[in-house]
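Researcher: Go.
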Amino acid sequence: MHDTQDQVLDLVRRWATAERDGDADAFDALLTDDFAGIGPVGFVLDRQQWAARHRGDLKNHHFEILDPRARLHGDAAIVGGVQEQRTSVMGHEVNDSFRLSLVAVRQDGRWLIANIQLSGPLQSPSAPPPFARERS
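Model: Structure:
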């Protein structure tokens, strides 16, 4: 089981490297054909759209997955962690941390990412949620 967890975490590392390096072509070997990526504000991208972000003006200056933890369920794995990034896109800086949920599946003997969902940006547990903050 430990070897399988290592394979899944290696997949997560290779994905993070592709994100950091802006390697749009690498996603062909990392994502399932029916991949869905859900961003922190709810947009949903398919595999081609996910890769296309790196063919535009998106640039990751820093991209890291902190404390990834894989839970195995047969030929599927759920990985949780924190995505930390310093990114520029469409003239805006996105320098934040997001909660990451990633689903990997084993297909034809190799692990691929089937789903990514981001939520956040993260805030201190003691901070009030956005709906409870005073409006100015």
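Model: The beta strands are 31-38, 44-46, 59-73, 76-89, 92-107, 110-119.
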